[in-house]
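Take just one protein record:
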Amino acid sequence: MADDAAVSLFQIAEDLLDGDHRFVRLVPVDPEGLAEALAPQVQRAYFDVRQSEAKMRAAIADLKHFSSTTLEITESAIREALEEELDAVLPAEWKAATEGGKARPQETAVQRSELAEIIAGMVLQDFFETVIPAARIAQKEVPDQQTRGVDVLGIEGIDVAHLEGFHLPSLALVLGEVKGSCSAASPPAVVRDMEKTLKGLVQDRRKLSQELIWLRDNCSEEHQRICAMILAGYQLKQFDPKVVMTPILLRTANTAGDKDMGKFRTNTASFSDDIRFVTVVLEADDLFNFAVQVYRKARELVTE
């Protein structure tokens, strides 16, 4: 499979600066082909087909060694097993079941919310060179449940390959809260939720410490040193990280409005840290149906 991540799927439609605050609107480069282009990105967020296949073939060799009977595994059987694994790790499609006598709203669909998180991670890396040492989705224990904690936790202002001579004060901590809304209201109600979440996080030392502990304990190997340094510096009160509050809002073209940024735009003085508000506008009638389309395509990729 080609490396689809080399070229961004989005482009900047608007980029406004207001002092230390930045407001960016992104749109797809190819709206009609976006769902198909996102599918491999989604699959990679949950499932490394090459790694899983290698583990399976190693296990098959062991099974053959320890089996008392001749074990013949066909290539089609391996493919079916990988398809089953992919289906198991991807969140299931939302179903209109009831909980406590009430129908669950589509906004609770795991696919819908996690597609937004995947897109958020993509655009932060593509347009802001944000380093994301660990992804919530990859660390989930139960695929069909929502992730917990800040949606995207990133680092900027650092080259992890060249840490010698690096000074922690030059680093910025990116706290990303991700929401999607098809509401006709502008701003949609979720923007107030984003404001509350991000303010609460930066004002609560215990909560931020919890996030940094999670980052240290779940980051990739190449980021272990810097994530440990960030946490230790914070815990020892030697480092108070610069924070970039990064609300990321997914909207559809038929619902996006000029006032979508809410107080993040109209009352920047009420925020203690820099704001980077990113709006991603999709050419889709509904975010829920778009997510279903993308995940269905992601489930098909292992057979190609």
